Amino acid sequence: MTDPLDPLDLEALEAAARDQLDRGVYDYIAGGADGELSVAGNLAAWSRLRLRPRVLRDVARVSTATTLLGSEVATPLMVAPMAYHRMAHPDGEAASAAGAAAAGALYVCSTQATMSVEEVAAAAPEAARWFQVYVVRDRGWTAELVARAAAAGYRALVLTVDVPLLGNRLRDLRNDFRLPTGLKPANAPPAGAARQRELASDVLAQAGQFDPSLTPDTIGWLAERSGLPVVVKGVLRGDDALACLDAGAAAVAVSNHGGRQLDTVVATADALAEVAAAVGDRAEVYVDGGIRRGTDVVKALALGARAVLVGRPVLWGLTAAGAAGVERVLSGLAGELQLAMALCGATGLGQLTPDLLAGPDAARS
Amino acid sequence: MTDPLDPLDLEALEAAARDQLDRGVYDYIAGGADGELSVAGNLAAWSRLRLRPRVLRDVARVSTATTLLGSEVATPLMVAPMAYHRMAHPDGEAASAAGAAAAGALYVCSTQATMSVEEVAAAAPEAARWFQVYVVRDRGWTAELVARAAAAGYRALVLTVDVPLLGNRLRDLRNDFRLPTGLKPANAPPAGAARQRELASDVLAQAGQFDPSLTPDTIGWLAERSGLPVVVKGVLRGDDALACLDAGAAAVAVSNHGGRQLDTVVATADALAEVAAAVGDRAEVYVDGGIRRGTDVVKALALGARAVLVGRPVLWGLTAAGAAGVERVLSGLAGELQLAMALCGATGLGQLTPDLLAGPDAARS
Amino acid sequence: MTDPLDPLDLEALEAAARDQLDRGVYDYIAGGADGELSVAGNLAAWSRLRLRPRVLRDVARVSTATTLLGSEVATPLMVAPMAYHRMAHPDGEAASAAGAAAAGALYVCSTQATMSVEEVAAAAPEAARWFQVYVVRDRGWTAELVARAAAAGYRALVLTVDVPLLGNRLRDLRNDFRLPTGLKPANAPPAGAARQRELASDVLAQAGQFDPSLTPDTIGWLAERSGLPVVVKGVLRGDDALACLDAGAAAVAVSNHGGRQLDTVVATADALAEVAAAVGDRAEVYVDGGIRRGTDVVKALALGARAVLVGRPVLWGLTAAGAAGVERVLSGLAGELQLAMALCGATGLGQLTPDLLAGPDAARS
Amino acid sequence: MTDPLDPLDLEALEAAARDQLDRGVYDYIAGGADGELSVAGNLAAWSRLRLRPRVLRDVARVSTATTLLGSEVATPLMVAPMAYHRMAHPDGEAASAAGAAAAGALYVCSTQATMSVEEVAAAAPEAARWFQVYVVRDRGWTAELVARAAAAGYRALVLTVDVPLLGNRLRDLRNDFRLPTGLKPANAPPAGAARQRELASDVLAQAGQFDPSLTPDTIGWLAERSGLPVVVKGVLRGDDALACLDAGAAAVAVSNHGGRQLDTVVATADALAEVAAAVGDRAEVYVDGGIRRGTDVVKALALGARAVLVGRPVLWGLTAAGAAGVERVLSGLAGELQLAMALCGATGLGQLTPDLLAGPDAARS
Q: Which residue of B has its CA nearest to C53?
């Protein structure tokens, strides 16, 4: 039997995680909203794009280094904010953050982590880390949390805006999914003690605390409270992206929450071109959703993204081998990216330009 | 085993109905004309459309309320007119009407009901109800029937225009499908006694009484006899929609009869845009055919419909649990609609505008 | 078990023929060239087209009658010229011709019939019959044959132009297909006696006698020798259609020989629009390839054809029930056509206009 | 059981090779990069193109003869340069070259042959042969090799430019693929003796010797050292093609290395039109990738190629029957091409013009 981490084989790695995890946990990670057409649609959209590689460029040296809001990273990969890493491995978010740092990728810690912001920070003290924030109805608690994140050395906030209400995740509803015994959200907002205990395991109810009345003003409020730049994650339209920038966002992340919120939305690869065209040089643009290959990263950057966020594959690697698994997933993707760049005739990320992509007609082959 | 009514899982609910119903009855409900490509095409067309949700709108309060020809409804859902509900459940159309009323949806009673117009009215006396009419060769009988409907509090007539002849429904022909013993069409037109008995069970022959010589003039004739506004159901073209309005129709319903009449017709999602563009603000436009998700409703309204008609899922709910089953199907869809609106950043139906839909290229993902 | 002839179910009828015929015979009928992509492509192209039916037309009376080069027919259906009907049924081409006549369709007798032109004529003396001609290297024999056809009351010649060489029919090559013992081509061109015996069963070798050097001049030569109008069958391009008319053709038939000659050619439904546009009102245009439903006929006529040729389904009907089977296949299709016309709001073939078809985007549903 | 070489049935021939070869060898031949989407995409792109054949042309004589950089060939087919033929058959490249010569096709010998340039030349001394060159880091050795090729009568060099680094061939990595015992690359570049032994079997490491810093200047350098015209193979863009010609290339070959280097690149059929349009009459253009039928060759030439390269099918034929197998594969394709030309109404390769191809809409059938 071959090792799905070397060479990186994400399909086999997911199958291994499916075997290893409880059904409810696996389904929570894998599932999407409604019929899960957008989960599949994200993947298909990257695969469908066709590359037009350049030849006879000197590619003896290829660099994947870049900066993300000024932070230097060795590769334009970020770990997408995801909840409850300790469901996948006892070392939890600390392992994920350490693995990301070892691979030269940026780590985005979720509000719904099973370890505190400070514990996660301690696992990768020198590395580029950002903090993802859900704004809950108790604004004071949110303000406190983002101040803690700033103090713990997170360099930006990632405001998730596509969960005013929780999507219709049929797998979790059918499974009556709850956090495994012994796990709890380390950063859960305050509530009565009984309610707190209940919430601790009720994953779906936790989302009910999110504030559904956010507006672009929230961006400035967060920036002010934290003193950090704010990335708005969950944007799928050019007009929304501009509204976010006008309201003080430092960057936007094109995302449909991995197909977990609203089904049959536009694939992120398709939304990216519109958003990148609207934003132009005003701000950095990132994208997530279905990134599984180095060639997917090349396509995302050619469409205008500065970096991509990788989600489920990180949890599969964490399940398989803790921090080392996360590192190997991200290093594997980084290696695939470097190879794909060389085979496209590109020695730096700035050379990943739109002409590397064929028009839609070619996408049918 | 999970309950397909909570959370609503229409695929499982249909499978349950298939298990529970006689083969002939299930086939009558499920089947379409010829190769049933339009049955599948309706479903595929909604799934294929891609949403472009808006973010950072205050969606703390989302309302699905609207009016349909002046009648207030809590949700833009109608029960499509369908024949012979007592095949699905002994409580028949009364249960369907009561379930619809409980869910805040409008009920359209079929000429081919297995309960009289008065019995159905009595089941939901206060609720918004419309009456679907087939014009038969005996015009006097038709005039009498629509007068009864008006007297029983039905607030509009729905004139079905796509059955001048019955479609080539191969399942019913192969099954030699007849009404189960003990059931008869409550509103069957008059005929000799022997012929009447025969017709009572011969579903296909009943349709032979429909008048194949209808013209737009029929619309005015019906309005005059009933004193009710007339909705023309079965329109797939903009020019036909305008001809109906010119002849006095109050609204049109884009429909291909659930794929049961002419196979390989245009999907209703595809026809809707053309019809809505032609009609503009002159009249209300509705649509049916393959609506299975709250996101389908969002798409229909974004394309210009004021409401949608739901057909087969209502009969599956009726089969499963009578009135309660109908209520849960419709409430489930209404809840999905409300959630989808919130996730699209819309707080009212008026905000479901065409920009929520991506162009055709994105539909391939 | 249901009868695939009533209601007409061509899929089941083909399955029955597959069970009944020798494998080699079935494969000869069913097969195509190379990978048989064009066999499937013809079928898919008709299915993919979407109808835009009209409503509220008085369709109490619907006529499918028309004329084909002046001959009156009850329905715009022709039996496509096909070889060796006695492989399917001992009554052979006589049964096919009689069945076609009974259904009001036009019969096209093949050069490669297993009964003589006169025998076939005698089976349907009053009916509209045309004769299909392969021009062989021995022009004298061809001249004699078409003169016999004219004398036997065939009213037009159908010149097949897409077999200068025989297509790469892998099934027949693998099966080493030969005519069953006792059958022989009744109209085989002269050859030495030994060669004649060999040819009598070697289906593939027979085609080697066809003249590969035909040019448009052949059209005029045939018309002159026979005194009959000449239909050119096998045209897929507008420019070729015009060249045929300029050379004296009375009509053209858009055909790719049922996918049996060159694989991956344009589907006939796709070629038809181009040819019909080029020809305009100068001449009649027919089409074959994959016609399996009444709706297919509606689409063909809406695209500009005056009639369609039906091939394999006729042989399946012949296999099942001789002349009666042929009649029921053709009557079934004619009935489907009449129903589809009514459901499209058309009372005559002249009302089957291009606006009945949706644009290519709708074809994806 | 039928012989997959007569009539040529490449699907069956591949299945036979799969049965006969060691798994690792078969996978090395069949595999591609990453998810192998481009392996499949090349095939699909040719199949998807639709032909518009001409009729009533005199095709009694059809010639497939042409010249390739001035060398006369009987058919516009070339054996693509592929490594290690002795893995498929003990007679190795000598058999392939002899088979190609017997079929009238041009042979391109790979740098990574298991027989020396001189041995291969001796197997087909009179035939048109070209030599494929990988430029390795040791330029002196490369210069020596191409001089030997020129001396051995190879008439052109084929510079492969799409392997600056080896693609991510997951099958070979999982199989830890190495050359079977007893085989070694006959033209391996010099290295220390121990390293040499290691390299001799480590197929993947050998590619590590290729020079990743090639630029268009390499073209002129090769031409000068060898005195031969240089064909640049691996071009997928019009701008790159022109840069190659500007740098002295005599021709370009549109290729994505059979999908073995960068996955999800544009299919060669799709890239060909762009490259041919850019090059115009300045130089010859060839194409490879997924050519499996005579109709594929017709399409390639109609899109602007002067000839095609055939890869994996040659190795399947070699596996099955040595030189005779190669000859039959190529003769079979040449025969299919000739037949397809006749059925398109073309008597020479110059008549294979773009109007033989339908537009993209027709490609959906």
A: B236
Give chain B's length.
365
Alpha carbon D108 to its chain's center: 7
The whole-number mean pLDDT for each consecutive block of 10 residues of chain D, a chain of 365 residues, reads 91 98 98 98 97 98 98 98 97 98 98 96 96 94 96 98 97 94 84 65 80 97 97 98 98 98 98 97 98 98 98 98 98 98 98 93 55
Among residues A237, A239, A298, A293, the alpha carbon closest in space to that of A270 is found at: A237
As a residue count, chain C comes to: 365
Residues 6+ apart with CB under 8 A from C237: C271, C274, C275, D52, D53, D54
Phi, psi of D230, deg, nearest 5: -115, 125
**B183's tokens:** 């059931």
| CA nearest neighbour of A347 among A54, A51, A71, A8 | A54
Positive or negative: CA dihedral B345, B348, B350, B352: positive
Q: Which chain C residues are closer than 8 Å to D51 by Cβ?
A: 262, 264-266
The total of other beta-carbon atoms located within 10 Å of residue B145's CB is 22
Residue D1's CB is within 10 A of a number of other CB atoms, namely 6
Whether residue C214 and residue D56 make contact (CB cut-off 8 A), yes or no, is: yes
Residue pLDDT, tens place only, C34-78: 999 999 999 999 999 999 999 999 999 999 999 999 999 999 999
Q: Which of D49, D60, D339 sits opposite C264 (nearest CB)?
A: D49
Q: Quick one: pLDDT band at residue C199, thresholds 50, 70, 90?
A: low
Q: Which residues pair with D308 in a beta bridge?
A: D77, D287
Q: Residue C222 — left, alpha, or beta (φ > 0 → left; ψ -120 to 50 → alpha)?
A: alpha
Residues 6+ apart with CB under 8 A from A37: A259, A263, A264, B47
Question: d(Cα B365, Cα A48) in Å, to the nearest integer?
Answer: 8
Task: Decide: D285 and D306 in contact? Cβ < 8 Å.
Answer: yes
- For residues D219 and D247, is the Cβ–Cβ distance under 8 A? yes
Q: How far, in Å, CA of A248 to CA of A258, rounded?
A: 25
For residue A139, give the amino acid letter. R
Of C318, C281, C338, the C-alpha closest to C75 is C338
Q: Which residues of C touch B (CB under 8 A)?
A: 2, 7, 9, 47, 49-60, 293-295, 299, 336, 339-340, 342-344, 358, 361-362, 364-365
Burial of C19 (0-12, 13-18, 19+ CB in 10 A): exposed
Distance CA D183, CA D185 (A): 7
One-letter amino acid identity for C216? P
The 3-state DSSP class for residue C235 equals strand
Categorize the per-residue pLDDT at C243 as very low, low, confident or very high, splitting at 50, 70 and 90.
Answer: very high
Q: Are C234 and C241 in contact (CB under 8 A)?
A: no
Angle at B115 between CA B110 and CA B118, to 5 degrees: 90
User: Which amino acid, residue A34?
Assistant: D
Angle, CA B353 vertex, CA B352 and CA B358 arms, to 5°: 110
CA distance D223 to D230: 6
Query: Which residues are paired to A131 by β-bridges?
Result: A109, A157
Residue C101, classed as helix, strand or coil, is helix
According to DSSP, residue A201 is labeled H
A78 beta partners: A106, A309
Which amino acid is residue D44, in one-letter code? A
Distance from D8 to chain C by nearest Cα, in Å? 9
Q: Dihedral, CA atoms, C10, C15, C16, C22, nearest 10 degrees?
A: 130
Q: What's the sign of the alpha-carbon dihedral B82, B87, B93, B98?
A: negative
Global pTM value? 0.97
Kindly tell me the sign of the dihedral angle through the C-alpha atoms of B225, B228, B233, B238: positive
What beta strand segments (E) does chain A contain?
Answer: 66-68, 71-73, 77-79, 106-109, 129-133, 157-160, 230-235, 251-254, 284-288, 307-310
Q: Provide the 10 A C-beta neighbour count for residue B194.
A: 8
Residue D158's SS3 state is: strand
Strand pairing of D307-310 and D284-288? Answer: parallel
